[in-house]
Amino acid sequence: MGKVLSISNHKGGVGKTTSAINIGAGLNKLGKKVLLIDLDPQANLSQSLGLINHEKTIYGALKGEYKLEPVSVLKGLDVIPSTLDLSGAEIELSSEPGREYILKELIENIRGSYDFIIIDSPPSLGLLTINSFTAADEIIIPLQAQFLAMQGLAKLVEVVEKIKSRLNKGLKVGGVFITQYDGRKVLNRDVVETINAHFKSEVFKTKIRDNIALAEAPAQGLDIFRYNAKSNGAEDYMDLAKEILKRK
């Protein structure tokens, strides 16, 4: 059975989507079969991999119109694309019985076909994110090495605990990792110290360095490994993927 990871942080601009794509691509390069699910109404993951205007998206699947229909990006790397229409799902699904379990039930049908299923969760704590957490085994949290990084984290952890007690007993925070890191900056190093003190062993050793190639790759519809395999971004996400495998 595949392991389901929810990449989540309701603070924007932390590299959540970039991380979902490149952790998935890194695990794929390490020989794992990976499914990426774009659960964000902004559809940035889908757009970043050149998947635009697909007929069958996560939105239609959540509404019960069809089952999950993975789109192959590479051998062993599939995507369930999103659409802007997903922004209406919170209201449309709010009256559905068992609404928190819709995504979990969809995933259960295809879970055995993958080693990892990675959900790019929306930057909010609404029904879509609750569906992501209910379906997941672990939540992976990207954090910027900036002063405001810890703001709002307490709320996220509180929501995780509520989901764990009420909807998903096996849920846990699988790890926290630092993004947009510049070791030359004292502030970055200080924030990392604070995060290490707070989360201790949950913090991944790998830090994702500030790297222009990570910002350029989506414009070409590529993950970092196909865009620039020798970049710091590719090196860091490969190291992170290896760490995630070790923790499995």
From TrEMBL:
Q: Which PANTHER family match?
A: COBYRINIC ACID AC-DIAMIDE SYNTHASE, P-LOOP CONTAINING NUCLEOSIDE TRIPHOSPHATE HYDROLASE
Q: Which SUPFAM superfamilies match?
A: P-loop containing nucleoside triphosphate hydrolases
What InterPro entries does this protein map onto?
AAA_dom (IPR025669), DNA_Partitioning_ATPase (IPR050678), P-loop_NTPase (IPR027417)
AAA domain ranges (all copies): 3-173
* Residues in coiled coil: none
Which species expresses this protein natively? Answer: Flavobacterium gawalongense
Q: Give the protein name, as stated in the record.
A: ParA family protein
